[in-house]
Design goal:
Shape: globular
Strand order of the largest sheet: 1-2
Number of helices: 12
Helix content: 55-70%
Largest sheet: 2 strands, antiparallel
Radius of gyration: 19 Å
Number of domains: 1
Number of strands: 2
Strand content: under 5%
Order of helices and strands: HHHHEEHHHHHHHH
């Protein structure tokens, strides 16, 4: 099988499997009464979403892992990325499960999640750089030069990047199809990057990602019939980090995931301003997508414009690479 045949087969397989298994998954989640719980302090328009099946990440993350492994050709980096994706999905699953069983919107404690994510990221990235030491060579933006990252620093940065990406996508997952659509854009950008850099061995990761997210969007697009939950969002963020770390393009991740960065920064700024300004707020509500809802933008408009912002980030990435 040629390198051109493999990626499209992986993408199609992931898409078809998610589309085919979607109705079954939604029916099962409804049967077990696994429904979304809505924040009481959130936008009023979200109250009607209460009870919508959640934890839909079990659908597309499972497909991503299986399809990427089948398309890995035994490449250790693809195998490690698949294992890491599954691991972050498990962390998200436990978090979602606790929210449901405690009948509230609080799952794992922040320190519990961060510790579990950090340890998993350390194991996966440590194994990756031990097998392929060249991973510690990062392309510098606006330059053809490469930064030779010491292995100890690579591991520290890899843990920070992986945990950061996972939680950034988690914060973005607040509107129908928003996170999944932005991941389709990011995955497409990485498909181009991998082709330019001559790294077809990582096609199994990126094309399974794009195919699975496209399939999930069939059910998750506005108005959503299913939500991914932390099960899906944490795993998607981890995949994005692994793509950057395993391709030597980690320094480009802030642009590839532009919307995820903006959402995270909005939360940080909101907290800082609130504490320093005696309770005043910079945004109507954080993350950023809620601010635009509260100033009057309809949810579909927010989603579409954030997708466009994600696409612009991708274009800028390809321009400076």
């Amino acid at each position: 099988m040629s390198n051109l045949e493999l990626p499209w087969g992986v993408l199609a397989a992931a898409w078809v499997l998610v589309i085919g298994l979607g109705p079954i998954t939604i029916k099962a989640l409804k049967a077990f009464k696994i429904g979304q719980m809505v924040r009481s302090d959130g936008p009023g328009t979200h109250l009607k979403k209460a009870g919508t099946p959640t934890m839909g990440g079990v659908l597309f993350i499972g497909v991503m892992v299986i399809v990427s492994l089948l398309g890995s050709n035994g490449n250790p980096l693809v195998i490690l990325a698949a294992l890491g994706t599954f691991g972050f999905g498990v962390i998200g699953f436990v978090d979602d499960f606790r929210k449901l069983t405690k009948n509230g919107t609080t799952g794992l404690k922040a320190r519990e999640k961060l510790l579990a994510q950090g340890l998993l990221a350390l194991i996966i990235c440590g194994a990756a750089v031990a097998i392929v030491p060249e991973l510690a060579q990062w392309i510098i933006p606006f330059s053809s030069r490469v930064w030779e990252v010491p292995h100890w620093l690579f591991l520290l940065l890899a843990v920070f990047i992986t945990v950061g990406c996972a939680n950034a996508v988690n914060l973005t997952d607040g509107l129908d199809g928003l996170a999944a659509g932005c991941m389709v854009v990011a995955g497409t950008v990485y498909a181009v990057i991998l082709t330019w850099l001559g790294l077809p061995m990582l096609y199994g990761i990126v094309f399974s990602l794009v195919g699975a997210c496209l399939g999930f969007l069939w059910f998750n697009a506005f108005p959503a019939a299913i939500f991914m939950g932390d099960t899906g969002s944490l795993a998607l963020g981890a995949v994005l980090a692994f793509l950057g770390l395993f391709s030597g393009t980690a320094l480009f991740l802030p642009l590839v995931g532009l919307v995820f960065v903006l959402e995270t920064v909005s939360v940080i700024l909101q907290v800082v301003v609130f504490r320093l300004a005696g309770g005043r707020r910079l945004f109507r509500m954080a993350p950023l997508h809620h601010h635009f809802e509260l100033i009057g933008w309809a949810e579909p408009k927010v989603i579409l414009r954030f997708w466009l912002a994600a696409a612009m980030g991708g274009v800028l990435t390809l321009w400076i690479l």
